[in-house]
Amino acid sequence: MTHLVTENPCNFQKTGRAVLQIVREGLQQLDQYINEDFTHACKIIYHCRGKVVVMGIGKSGHIGKKIASTFASTGTPSFFVHPAEANHGDLGMVCTNDIVIAISNSGEALEILTLIPVLKRRDIILICITSRPESTMACAAKIHICVKVPQEACSLGLAPTSSTTATLVMGDALAIALLNARGFTQEDFALSHPGGALGHKLLLRVEDIMHTGNDIPRIQPEASLGQALLHMTSKKMGVIVICSIEGLIKGIFTDGDLRRILNLSMNIDVRNLRIDSVMTQFGIRVKPKTLVVDVMNMMKSKNITCVMISRNDQLLGLVHIHDILHTNIT
Predict the structure, then answer these.
(1) Which listed residue, of 64, 235, 243, 266, carries a Cα 20 to 30 Å from 181's Cα?
(2) pTM (predicted TM-score)
(3) Nearest in space to 60 (alpha carbons), one of 101, 104, 109
(4) Distance CA 59, CA 92 (A)
(5) 315-324 b/e (C-beta count within 10 Å ≥ 16 → b)
(6) Strands 249-254, 239-243: parallel, antiparallel or unpaired by DSSP?
(7) 3-state secondary structure of 252
(8) 144 carries a ligand binding annotation
(9) What structural domains does the chain harbor?
(10) With bands split at pLDDT 50, 70 and 90, how would you rate the model's confidence at 1?
């Protein structure tokens, strides 16, 4: 039967704030559980030669999936196995060198308890996260991490709320402690997130987007300014690289350079004036492995639109600001 809600919206807000306060108080209790058991768990996971297998049923299962995902993305190979499925064949996914982290608020989840004898027989290390140190799971575990909270935020005291939040936070604490211990870097994180914005930013290099070969507007030093302008116009990049027949960079000329020399004199003989007499010598260049985001920041700081990619003065490619903008890196 559906009941018509007639409560004042202020009461909803009051309840919402009360829930947040109860959860905050619960999290404050977790400090006492960052103890020797926590340290022992971190050390065992750090030295694990296999994977961390996380298990949980019901709401603990949902939290367990998130913890496994956080582990996996921060340098600790991990995956989630549903204990009910593990009882019917999926336990074969757990190998001898793996570690099992089992989650249950009560510590009496039957689906997990039935697995413990098999895990012990196979000498698989068991870490349990519960709110009851005296529970069956806690007593059976090699390490028990307590996540006991004073009360659930549910007014009935039934729906897992504060307890699931506490478990989630403890999982984050384990994952980040291990991340720091491993010296996990931004680039390591990006390798686990190649499809995300951060991964894209930290993995994309100029060699991945640069113009190469005949796509590069280039000309030899003895060419005339007129020839250079025609070739530069045909490539539609507003720039031309001046390099030797062997491909060694001598300089660069941009449409900005053209405007500057025109401001100095309108009587320029574009047919006879050599490009190497008006080019910018050397020019700004970067290595192929340079991150696109770093090149973008350099372009902004130097107020330029093109950068040459080279190795030992050999021209390899050219990147225009429009090429970077098309990558959607911000």
Answers:
(1) 64
(2) 0.70
(3) 104
(4) 24
(5) bbbbbbbebb
(6) antiparallel
(7) strand
(8) no
(9) 30-184 (3.40.50.10490), 206-326 (3.10.580.10)
(10) very low
